Amino acid sequence: MTFTQQRSKFVGSSSSDYFYLRGATVDYSTVLWHGIGPVVAFNGMAVTNLRQQIDIHQVSFLGGVRYSYSKGHITPTIWNRKGSIFVEGLYGITLATAGYYPDPYAGTLKSNATGFTYALGGGINYNVYHAFELRLMSHYFITDLPNGGSNQQKNIQVSAGVNWHFGY
Questions:
Q1: Sign of torsion, CA 149 151 156 158?
Q2: CA distance 119 to 106
Q3: Residue of 35, 41, 32 whose CA lies nearest to 157
Q4: What's the pLDDT score for residue 77?
Q5: Hey, what domains does the chain have and what are their CATH numbers?
Q6: Which of helix, strand or coil describes residue 51?
Q7: Cβ(137)–Cβ(156) below 8 Å
Q8: Which residues of the chain form beta strands (DSSP E)?
Q9: Which of 100, 104, 125, 130 registers the highest number of CB atoms within 10 A of its CB?
Q10: How far apart are CA 32 and CA 36, in angstroms?
Q11: Torsion, CA 95, CA 25, CA 55, CA 110, rounded to 10
């Protein structure tokens, strides 16, 4: 589980149109063959009181493929600390509520929206103690939510937290 911060942008070209959503990401992955395997991720984000009236809550459900490369033992300690890096590509859906989303068919604003989501990124794991690791990761996160413009948000996500292994 990681703490996640996402940089997003309002529609427009002003340099002050950026805002930050904060939340958590939980993912599960396994290695099936030579460092490659499936990954599923759940991402919950929120921001309140944007421009004194807008709240945004987003939940993303993603699945995809991850490639992990284990560095092996990187410090000569009693716990044999290990490190690994990974890259992943994810695809899924984002549900957004509590905001203002244009309805292109009715010409009105809705309080919720749904859109496809694509994420490409990776991260670093550093083994702290047996099955626990510290994780730092980043993603280029694209959501296809209606916004009255391109109907696509290109975001940057940065996450940090604790990773726990089942088994070993």
A1: positive
A2: 30
A3: 41
A4: 55
A5: 2-164 (2.40.160.20)
A6: coil
A7: no
A8: 2-9, 18-29, 36-50, 54-73, 82-103, 108-129, 132-143, 153-164
A9: 125
A10: 6
A11: 0
DSSP-assigned letter for residue 147: -
At 118, which amino acid appears?
A: Y
Q: What is the pLDDT of residue 91?
A: 95
Task: Convert 69-109 into a string of H (helix), E (strand) and C (coil).
Answer: EEEEECCCCCCCCEEEEEEEEEEEEEEEEEEEEEECCCCEE
Q: Please state, in angstroms and rounded to a whole number, the distance separating the CA atoms of residues 162 and 65.
A: 21
What pLDDT, in 10s, does the model give residues 27-50? 888 888 888 999 999 998 888 776
Token pair 């992990």 in the structure block, residue: 68
